[in-house]
Amino acid sequence: MLRRIQRERVELVQRMLYHWPERVTVPPNQHLLRDEDMEQLTAQFDPLAGRREDLGLDIIQNVLSFMATLNAF
Length: 73
Known about the structure:
The chain is mainly α. The protein contains three helices and no strands.
């Protein structure tokens, strides 16, 4: 029973990945950074860093924390 449920979950994830939409709607930017803040952001964070299993969530959290310190929200 447990194996069947696990197999169904794997199949569901596989279907979702294979049927990923080709286009993504990106909302307009509502938060502009000053040039010096953007330079610090790009110097401080490498978008390709981190463990692959984390899916970049740790980087996103760090960027949001950085922006929060700038009162950008």
